[in-house]
Request: fold
Amino acid sequence: MAKKSKSKSRSRSGSGKRRRVTARRGRSRARARRRILVPALLFVAAALALWICAEGLIVYREFQGRLWTLPARVYAGPIELYAGKDLPRDRLVGRLRQLGYREASGGQIESAAFWATGRSLRIRTRGFHFWDGDEPARTVQLDFDGRVIRRIRDAGGQDVPVMRLDPMEIGSIFPAHGEDRLVIAPDAIPETLSAALIAVEDRKFLRHHGLDPEAIARAAWANVRAGRVRQGGSTLTQQLVKSYFLDNRRTFRRKTREAVMALWVETIYDKQEILTAYVNEIYLGQDGRRAVHGFGLASRFYFGRPLGELALHEQALLVAMVRGPSYYNPWQHPDRARERRDLVLRLMAEQGIVDEALAQQAASRPLAVLAGPGGSGYYPAYLDVVRGQLGRDYAPDDLDSAGLQVFTALELASQEQAEASLERGLAALEKQDAAFAGLEGAVVVSHPRTGEIRAVVGGRRSGFDGFNRALLASRPVGSLIKPAVYLAAIEDGRTLADLINDAPLEIALDNGTVWQPGNFSGDGEGEVTLVRALAQSLNLATVRLGMEVGLPEVIDVLRRLGVPGEIAPYPSLLLGAVELTPLDVAGVYTTIASGGFRTPLRGVRAVLDAGGVPLNRYPIELTAEFDAGDIFQLSRGLLQVTARGSGRGVARRLPKTLTAAGKTGTSDEFRDSWFAGFTGDNLAVVWLGRDDNTPAGLSGSRGALPIWSDLMAELGGRGFAQLPPPGIAEVWIDYDDGRLSREGCGEAVLLALPEDAEMAVKPGCAPSRRGFKERVGEWLQRLKD
Amino acid sequence: MPALVLALGLGALGGCASAGGTMRAGDVSDPDPVDSTGAGGVPDARPLPDTAAAPVARAPAPRNSAVVALQAQAASEKAAGNPEQAASMLERAVRIEPDDAELWLALARLRLDQGQPQLARELARRAESLAPSGSGVRRRARDLQQQAATGGGPR
Reply:
């Protein structure tokens, strides 16, 4: 202290000049400070204003843009209902439940519902706008006769010849950031839902200007007491802004930005617009890679029904989940979710949104969510087909943000069965031998006449996005290729009753080496009929036949069957050294199954824009690539594969009436196990193997075939049946020597041959010759044609 | 009756004459696979499906009323100048009854009228392949192919 006074006195005792200088210096410093400070303040103010304006611009631009970011919705094929359809009542009821129809018990029916009356079923349907017009909402009664729908009548007692249910939504094509939503129009938001959101999340929503100072002060006090930022005090507007523009960090800077943006949102938009945006934006759950945004999609995701059909307790659950979709996840934490739902209901009653009794009644209801995520139907493997097909006609932006409605041919029954059969088959193999653990598989089901893809299974974990083997795994097809060799031979003028030598052979290759193909077992069977070589998948006979017919001819047949890409003309091609995906194989076999008409495989039938205006349609197109008689002869041969050849396991599993033609395929060292084949109504390809391409240890008949048979047996439908084309006769042939025979005489098989084929007759088995009357009848028939 | 006797006689004669020699495949009496099991002499005499094949399509069944209704709807859409709506309905019908030749023929006719003779021809071929021999639809399917081949436009 003394020291200080000393210095003071010294300063006082200094010259006046120095004092003046100091004072001057002080003033000039102050002036200089002012000179810097004022512009600096002005600069800061300008920057702040600029920043605020910039934030306003961002809000405006993003908000407008976001209104248009609608992922494409993808629908399964609708279920057609008509008299005569094979669809047991309980199965239909299962489908209706999947579509979110409620089981009604009389009384006033307002939304989609069904109820049983005696042996009939009544349905109040949802209306739906399809590509080709509206299907009205109506009440119908279906009478059943065993497993078949006998009659359909509307409420007025009029017969309804045919109708379709609204299609099941099977997913959407959402942008890379994973946000999926189903946008709800302002007038389609249930009033109770809006009111509940306001009551629970932001009571002063209709009065404030984006911020609620009281709530902020309350939160700030709580934060001060806690010593860190814990509470938000966010209005609905702030929550919306946070979800639109900001990350989840709770920093001061972010909170400031949020506040500025919230004020802007309130300046530019009215309350109704803000609430609508909130309803469509807010995050409500996660499904793998897909983030569930908005109440429209959440309603589908948790309840399998449109938002407009949710009851009070269901709406309340969704409102409850806004606070923490994973914390209040009804599947993982049902008690928590229920407790908060009931709190929402109490708040609704307290604020007079619903009356007390109604709220209490709603609180007594169970959560009523679906059995689990994906229960509403999510088929990512099929969506890959959709993306692939639409990718040719639409830009990626159109698909993930233009709100397109995509109608597909996915058939739920086929898809579910394909998944189940694959899983069952793989599990059974694992049970047989632990060495089969970790096998993967893929299945494609298509319609043989229309080329529509009914089901796609991309792997064992079918409900998850992942490597889609059905579309992407190109694998050697092994003997699946053989029908092409025999078809080339038929085109070359041979018949399946002709003989070929199944004996070792050597083929000199262009590179100077010699290729010696081997048979699956043994050194060859000697002289065999073509039908036997095909049915038993004899390698040596097939290679000899292919070389005799010519590789270019076989390659030409493969191209016309629909094999994509380059096909290298190596002799090993004849044994399936060609890599194809299961979907490619389905395309090739569809050409055979459809009588030689090539039809591009399609998943998408039609596309509507967001407003329901028709855009594209993908109609049935076909090209006759083969002579009908040639294909018919081949098909008759393929029937023998399943009847007595390498695919005879099929006959054991399928009912006798369900005739099936098909082929097994096994690649080198048992890496790939294939079966491809068809009945009258379905074509399916099954592949089994390992992702790292190590041997699976399974032949086609041991691995893929049982799965294929199981699938086909469950799908049912009609057997493979075709009329013999003109000029083709169906005759019995001796399986071993190819001579004309008759039914039941030795080992006789039914084949199709050109009528003018001159055949040796098997002694003792001569068929009866066509009678005079038969010939005259036929002659008259031809005259009529 | 005399014709029948003659036919039986010739048939029997034919059968005897062919024993051990050769024969044209087309001369073999219809094997009528409807009732046969096709099992032949296979040791593993399981019920074999190969023979249940063709007959299903052979029996002329009354047309499914659902597809008849859809075809009628398609006709009115076409008349109203909405050919793609009409096509969509016919395809709906085809999915229900894929072997109905009439539907494929209607689709072919629609494409021809739309000025797509190539597709019309292919569709008519499909119709022909599904139509029973001697049927009216088969004849019409042929006519339409002819028309499409000669560039026959809308009729």
